[in-house]
């Protein structure tokens, strides 16, 4: 007959182990010490086997019966319950070991091996730190969208909408890495895209009108601060690289005889080497700067240490001293200035301009086309742009044929 809770409670310890059957192979094994263990006897592929369900009363009679019924369902599907139980334990151990923190650290290590810049790694670490306290110790496969939203809302509450958006994106990258390594099945951040406040995009200020840009050039060429800062701003106008690419430039990257600047992949936004043609005017500025710093090391070292570059704040501060507010012009704005005026000239293909700006699309064929087919055009464009700069800052109107 099936067991009852009252009967089980009244069972006393005995000199020898004894079994009390509940039916369907389920029985209670009582040891001489009085321990009451749930077990199930069954046959699989002709062999007699035994399955353990736990200790009474931690595992109740109802729980034991459910475990027995689940085991019978597995047997009906020709699955050995003992093997399945071992697999379930392995899965739980792996799940407990694969926490968000563990996967996040592996993801960061992967980025480092892929050669991502230290600034990128630092930014990713900082973004992930926004959520580690909330669910970092949780198994990644168990984390829900609702859990992720909690720290994101906390970031939003401080008015940091862009940080919240980037944190969601970074957390999503960790989940996709977990999916790729078979430790998660879905990315819960996908459903949060519409839950966060979209930040207002503030484009970097830039002067894009030819006449106004001429005024900026005159101010730069007449800048009375340090020669190094004046030269850096002059080259920002001539070459319009990303500010960090110029500030961190090393003399080893320049071949003034051939008129090229090779920006290494580690310092470009796209993580691909970028070669820029140098006009005669740009080469002359570099030669003057070289006479000040020598031909080795940083092109624009800090006044405090030759081992450290000038900062972007240094360039922007110089623009402020010249009377240009942060809403009018930034060091990064030279890129938009050049792009606008070059495009408006109608003399150069948009693709050549984009290639010079190192704006590379996703099409691999198009990348190769940018680098190779447009090189001659970019060399001519660099020469034209240098002459236009001379014309704009001297208030002349000169159109140079290609």
Automatic annotation (TrEMBL):
PROSITE patterns: CB, TYR_RECOMBINASE. One of its GO terms (biological process) is DNA recombination. Residues 12-21 have a biased composition (Basic and acidic residues). The keyword DNA-binding applies. Residues 1-26 are annotated as: Disordered. Residues 98-179 form the Core-binding (CB) domain. Belongs to the 'phage' integrase family. This is Integrase.
